[in-house]
Amino acid sequence: MDTLPKSVDVAIIGGAAAGLSAALFTARRGLSTAVLTKNIGGQLATTVDVANYPGIDYITGPNLALTIHAQAASAGAKTVITEVHAIVPPTDKGTSFTVETTAGTITAKAVIIALGKTPRSLGVPGERELVGKGVSYAAAAELGPYRDKTVAIVGGGGSAFVALRMASKLAAHAHLIHRSDTFRAETTEIDRLQQAANITWHTFCEVTAINGTKKVESIVLKNSETNDEQTVPVDAVFIEIGFMVKPDLFAKLVELTPQRQIIVDSRGETSQPGLFAAGDVTNSPFNQAIISAGEGARAGLAAYTYVTGKPAGADWGV
Fold first, then answer.
1. What pTM, to 2 d.p., does this model score?
2. Can you tell me the distance from the alpha carbon of 2 to that of 9, in angstroms, rounded to the nearest whole number?
3. What is the pLDDT of residues 184-211, one digit of tens each?
């Protein structure tokens, strides 16, 4: 992944189908583009099977996300694994947005919000600081660099067990941490993984801290039954505890529906000039990867026109 640029033409917040497609279209038109995201793929990265994406008979969600990301990167888009704290709109016409992230501050002439639903955080010390340095919210897409390493999976649902299955095959050892001994995954999946020799199960446990400076080094676990704490050395922590709508980032900037979704027009424009939105975070009535990708492309084209003052035109051969 890339380091945070100081300024770009377009900053895109979110790294799933909508955000990556927007990045592909802005970058191909020569705009400097930065994708700011906690992970690659979002909810798409937790989808095992995708069989309704036009032109592709079958692909897994993580591979689809990585494919679009590779296209956007090839076109010149930069991707920074980080969390966005705030978006500050321009104070005067012709000035830029300021986007504050855990990796630093970046300015952009236009911003596209493509968050979808935001991965739930643990909210523990060290988590925010180590995002992209071993803390991840999309194991299915980001386990690769941790082959033969020790990893922790936090969660007890379907996505956690997809991650655990992958980790059992890829990592040297995996720790599953869950706050109870009841899991929401399929029984056959649970039974199969309980036979794996390289998995340690930590039930009735919660992560209370993630330790490390430049990278994850260990986690602190607290047992809710005994109140005992232990420090477990790990190279990465994959947090798989679901998603939520998180409107706080943009609630004061744009008009929202009563359901707290961003209202956009036919070009993906919001009520704030220069601020666009696409995908599940908007008032779009459908939540499908192909629709999010199309809306991302639309927002990217609209952002191009906003930044350059030129019509985006047709994409044939571009």
1. 0.73
2. 16
3. 888 999 999 999 999 999 999 999 999 9
For domain 128-239, which architecture applies?
3-Layer(bba) Sandwich (3.50)
Residue 12 tokens read as 């895109």
Classify residue 316 as exposed, middle or buried by CB count within 10 Å of its CB (0-12, 13-18, 19+): exposed
Rounded Cα–Cα distance for residues 122 and 119 (Å): 10
Place of tokens 């989808």: 47
Q: Do 141 and 132 form a contact (C-beta atoms < 8 A)?
A: no
User: Which residue spans of the chain are classified as CATH 3.50.50.60?
Assistant: 7-119+243-308, 128-239
Q: What dotted CATH number matches 7-119+243-308?
A: 3.50.50.60
Q: Which two structure tokens, joined as six digits, stand for 213?
A: 């400076």
